[in-house]
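Structure (tokenized):
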């Protein structure tokens, strides 16, 4: 009976939403370099573009 009374007396059915805090991105230090690569890749044929694995490998070498 407690649960039914609790829900019957409830006026606000909306869930309380707390604001989400954005964490700093791991890619932030490399973002400019990767963006440059991707812009340059847009001008070359599809087969010559960087893959995700190649981008990661290049990032590892920069560290």
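Design, position by position:
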């Amino acid at each position: 009976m407690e649960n039914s009374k609790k829900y019957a007396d409830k006026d606000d059915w909306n869930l309380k939403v707390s604001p989400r805090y954005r964490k700093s991105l791991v890619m932030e230090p490399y973002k400019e370099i990767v963006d440059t690569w991707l812009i340059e890749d847009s001008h070359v044929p599809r087969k010559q573009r960087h893959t995700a694995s190649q981008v990661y490998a290049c990032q590892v070498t920069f560290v």
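Reviewer-requested clarification: The chain is about 45% helix and 0% strand. The radius of gyration is 25 Å.
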